Amino acid sequence: DQVGEKLKAQKDADRRFMQLALTLGRRGQGRTWPNPAVGAVVVKDGIIVGRGWTQPGGRPHAEPEALRRAGAAAKGATLYVTLEPCSHFGKSPPCVDAVIAAGISRVVSAIEDPNPEVAGQGHARLRAAGIQVEVGLCSADAARDHAGHFRRIRDGRPHVILKLAVSADDKIAAAGSKPVTITGEAARTRVHLLRAQSDAILIGVRTAIADDPLLTCRLPGMAARSPVRVVLDPILRLPAASRLVQTARTTPLWLVGSEIAEPAAATRFGAVGAQVIRVPPQAAPSALEPPAVLRALAERGITRLMIEGGSRVASSFMASGLVDEIWLLRGPGEIGADGIAALDALPLTAITQSPAYRVRASEALDHDTLTIYERV
Ligand code: AOF
Ligand code: ZN
């Protein structure tokens, strides 16, 4: 019947506009921390009159951006938003006030904000103002996009993505940690995109010394999207001549050291623009405890953390059960039995056969394959 047809058309349209809001929100991923990257779309009589997303640094929020573009057309319109509009006075005034003032008549919101300052009060205040509010459309997509914010708010740590590039025989480097080319150009592009969408990227000091990496996003026009570079360096021995230290003034470099590291070393790094974070020492002085490292990063606002190596860092985070997502890139070549195993003492089946993870996506990138695992 006609009423049913109309309802179905409305549902399809709602889903389309919410998917657009999600796509817009992702533009901010990696540069809105400590805030989530939210997307918003204002629709009047089936026509998009405003689009917005959380701006770099986390402000302005997505809703005022979309409302500003909609102007007077927002009156009587529907707002699609990927996270509950905020109801608190933070560094910006409450978005719900802006939504109400603009005359929005219906709000379609993907998911509630677990931030205790909001936690349902945003939706409640919109309803109290007479606005029709629907919550939950595309909530699984929104939960995935806001995984970093949710983790940080709920568990006091970032969402952790482990990236591994392995050879056909599960190795990540040749003997002596010599870097070898494992994956190709398409894979490199994907990894640099993931860097851009991460707040921070972490490696161990051994890898920092062996590879002398930059860890920046080097896609054309995207240099400004480089994440904070974090090196786990218990006794603060990263060489001053390393490319990481040399670029510390242009792209943030945080060194996580043990509290027992030499204070003089910390001062030296501070002088060249790097920031030193100290976490308590523990049983094995050569390693830092993953939970303490993650807590320190979350306290500084990091919501999405990418881990890029090496094998000991990867295995210690895997063993501590703190990895939420794994990007496993596999190249076609073999390195040989004397190569370095991807997860140190742990077999790769700790990921591929683990009941804790399932395959979210799998795709071919030239001669390589990318498999993304997520928590069950
Ligand atoms: C929204 N829209 O686009 C974002 C929201 O310190 P403030 O004022 O910037 O508030 C930060 C909190 O606001 C953050 O922890 C999260 O709960 C929410 N983020 N809310 O309505 C947005 N980014
Ligand atoms: Zn807000």
UniProtKB/TrEMBL annotation:
Cofactor note: Binds 1 zinc ion.
Pathway recorded for this protein: Cofactor biosynthesis; riboflavin biosynthesis; 5-amino-6-(D-ribitylamino)uracil from GTP: step 2/4; Cofactor biosynthesis; riboflavin biosynthesis; 5-amino-6-(D-ribitylamino)uracil from GTP: step 3/4
Keyword Zinc among UniProt keywords: yes
GO molecular function: 5-amino-6-(5-phosphoribosylamino)uracil reductase activity; diaminohydroxyphosphoribosylaminopyrimidine deaminase activity
Matches recorded under Pfam families: dCMP_cyt_deam_1 (PF00383), RibD_C (PF01872)
Protein keywords: Hydrolase, Metal-binding, Multifunctional enzyme, NADP, Oxidoreductase, Riboflavin biosynthesis, Zinc
Cofactor(s) needed: Zn(2+)
Residue ranges constituting the CMP/dCMP-type deaminase domain according to the UniProt record: 12-134
Catalysed reactions, semicolon-separated: 5-amino-6-(5-phospho-D-ribitylamino)uracil + NADP(+) = 5-amino-6-(5-phospho-D-ribosylamino)uracil + NADPH + H(+); 2,5-diamino-6-hydroxy-4-(5-phosphoribosylamino)-pyrimidine + H2O + H(+) = 5-amino-6-(5-phospho-D-ribosylamino)uracil + NH4(+)
Gene3D superfamilies, per the entry: Cytidine Deaminase, domain 2, Dihydrofolate Reductase, subunit A
EC number: 3.5.4.26, 1.1.1.193
Its job: Converts 2,5-diamino-6-(ribosylamino)-4(3h)-pyrimidinone 5'-phosphate into 5-amino-6-(ribosylamino)-2,4(1h,3h)-pyrimidinedione 5'-phosphate.
PANTHER family, sorted: 2,5-DIAMINO-6-RIBOSYLAMINO-4(3H)-PYRIMIDINONE 5'-PHOSPHATE REDUCTASE, DIHYDROFOLATE REDUCTASE FAMILY PROTEIN (AFU_ORTHOLOGUE AFUA_8G06820)
Similarity field: In the N-terminal section; belongs to the cytidine and deoxycytidylate deaminase family. In the C-terminal section; belongs to the HTP reductase family.
UniProt-recorded name of the protein: Riboflavin biosynthesis protein RibD
Organism for this UniProt entry: Bradyrhizobium ontarionense
Phylogenetic lineage: Bacteria, Pseudomonadati, Pseudomonadota, Alphaproteobacteria, Hyphomicrobiales
Name of the coding gene: ribD
